[in-house]
Amino acid sequence: MATIDVVPQESSGHLGRKRVVNDMSIQVATVNGSGSQSSNSVLLRSIFQMGVPVSGKNLFPSNIAGLPTWFTIRANKDGYIARKKEIDLLIAMNAETAQDDVKSLAPGASVLYDEPLALDRVRDDLVFYSVPYDKLVAPVCPEAKLRKLVKNMIYVGVAAHLLDIDMNEVEKALRRQFAKKVKAANLNLAAVKAGYDYAASNLIKRDPFVIARMDKTQGKIIIDGNSAAALGCMFAGCTVVTWYPITPSSSLVETLIEYMKEHRIGPDGKATFAIVQAEDELAAVGMVIGAAWAGARSMTATAGPGISLMAEFTGLAYYVEIPAVIWDIQRVGPSTGLPTRTSQGDVLFTAFLGHGDTKHILLFPSSPEECFTLAHDAFDLAEQFQTPVFVMSDLDLGMNNWMTDPFTYPDKPINRGKVLTKEDLEKVGNFARYKDIDGDGIPYRTLPGTDHPAAAYFARGSGHNEKGQYSERPDDFERNLERINKKFETARSFVPRPEVVSAGKSKIGIIAFGTTHWAITECRDQLRNEHKLETDYLRLKSYPFTHEVHDFIEQHDRLYVVEQNRDGQMATLLKLDIKPELTPRLRSICHIHGLPIDARSVTDELMMMESE
Amino acid sequence: MATTPTDAPKPKVNRIGLQVIDYRGGKTTLCAGCGHNAISERIIDAMYEMGIKPEGVAKFSGIGCSSKTPAYFMNRSHSFNSVHGRMPSVATGALMANKRLLGIGVTGDGDTVSIGAGQFVHLMRRNLPIIYVIEDNGCYGLTKGQFSATADLGSTLKSGVINDLPPVDTCMLAIQLGATMVGRSFSGDKKQLHAMLKAALAHKGTVMLDVISPCVTFNDHEGSTKSYKYVLEHEERLHEVDFVPSFENISVEYDPGTAFDVTMHDGSRLRLRKLEEDYNPTDKIQAMTRLMEAHVNGEVLTGVFYINSKAPNFLDMLNITDQPLATLPESVVRPSREVLEKCMEELR
Fold it and tell me: Is 0.90 exceeded by the ipTM?
């Protein structure tokens, strides 16, 4: 349902076109800092409250105020929530970009614009609705300086009328948005109503798009991935959080601070956590490692440039065997790149972060729900394997609003790994920090402050033997590094398993991870419905790869690895892990423009490669 | 100590029943005569005399000759030899995780002032309770004697190369930034360093001690301003440092005009017997002025330049619960099912 199948005619009204119910994407073009975020949230929530599956994606600039920003709302009865390439309704509020915004639309789309922009002169194959915002805003908002903000609420009212959204739902969403500010709510509601009334008496519906009540959002919640991650970390028993502000990860820790202040203050009024804003990412991860060495469940959150700075400490933690949970909310690199756009470009760098032979456990959440559950897994795996664990989220997941089922309370107890207490030491007498007692490569550790004369060991990034003593002996070094590798092999059986969708008949497999998943679910339907092509699908959740990944590759002739980076980084990582004779089976579909990947692009590219 | 008539004399023990040997570490691998070894000895003595339990101490260091030394004292304490210039962040994390630990960091002038300047600055700002000892020799020993950023203007390398950039004064930096006990000593001044370390153990906040510690191999020659000879000739003691621990009920009479008495957090007393008229170690401005003058006059000024026993420390400010975060049980760190339901309800 991506394209409009009937050519619209300006004069004949919507009767000439098939009604399109609950399947559209709306793009709001504004300038950042103009308060449009509230308007867009109200519009999104109104549709959600009507029971229609919805997603919202904010394409914003790296800037405080005054640069163009676009918010895309997709409503889809089938539950597709990936970005849709085509825009059906453009709400053009930004004079600077309006002409280009209109030019980029597919024929048949409709445009809601500010009257003075006179956009109807730009093209004649679109449906145009003009609204005199300035005339409408003045009576509802006497205070001139607030008009710039209130003006944006008018388009909510106009859109509500055009799309047949229930005004009661709009009011409910708006009151929720301005929960504690009754005055602001009333002011904004008046603006919404002014827009609605204007549309009712002045605009004739000439586009086919409408919202009609469904029951597909019953019980669901709307949350961004960073907030979900914050909740996950709090319920995973995180005790030390350090960070250095960086887009798009900052909101993860800021939300965590709010949650912790509310739910993790003991009866004595004291905190069961410590959160520190560090001087840079070097210090942030250094504090995480110091805290974890001393026994805290500690974490930090960052993005690509921060990951670069954390390379030194991550290598130390790998070799000294200290747990750490590091959230990488990926944005577009290299270098500063596009700080406010999404990517999956840190996969390879993070997998091997650090000099010398180094490799790390990576987890790949694809939904807010997985941000919540993988948070727990990350802390457990980090402490179980005494090693850094990276949770590879991205800007699309972290900062955008997603509709999801409510999270379920963690049923697994917290796993603190192999820690010897004073009582344990009294039984065993002494211990060697880096000795493989159990044959799984994972040694035992003690925490500083353990009240036993044999508890202490010397943690060092320099060569050491099983007792942690300085050693330059070749055999000590080799044995130790091989044992650390054994830990990584053990981890293959403990990391989260991939999700496999296979009917066992297709020779074509798709492999994806993270937010790419949402384009793939839609893409597979497109392949089936439009091209009669059945595909199997494996969604990765972790590195190292589990045996299911190897089995899936063995079972298929052609495997399309779809990811949001230039070089096919996950495909490369897979090729390093599988039998050499299987590597020609892997083909890469890569997207690097910084916007969330859409299904149509993947479908088209996959079909092109299939026909070659 | 009371003695009982037995065959063999009982070994000497401190107030928690440990011998000095219980505070020893591994054999040093530094050069014979290295000032760092003397500092390790002073740390052992101070810890022993103060009756500090080794298991409650955490040692931290970065990279360099000085950062190796935690292996040479207190084997019964956990230790973390981290990465170059980044010891402050590791120590900060560890002490947040377990606020009952007594933290001591040993670092060098390269580790602190060059590669670690950023972390040093922020450690001082936070007033984290830690004893931060710079073993300052004005050069890079492990890489064979290059100048560090504490080398004085005009000081020479063995090869004759002259340092033409001004030195960083770590004490002035620390005072300006917020450390609450700041002093300078000399590895060869056994009595003064000993007293300052004991006072440091009684202080709850960042103690920054810059200890001139000559490098006998690369920076002890004629022309160096960090040599034994130069420091002995140019040392100016600001005062005589005495320390009376809280557990020793010794009352020493003194004339208020001749000494400055500071009551420490644990009730111990730091007594600074005046050698210079009217020096007040609680006055930041006077401290900075006096250190500036020392630079102009070419003096190696030693003593406790600044002390503030009242400023809140970082762990107090974080309002952390009394039990160490590291060992809080699941029942405390995982909120209830009802809390999750409430959070979900807010998002519907």
Answer: yes
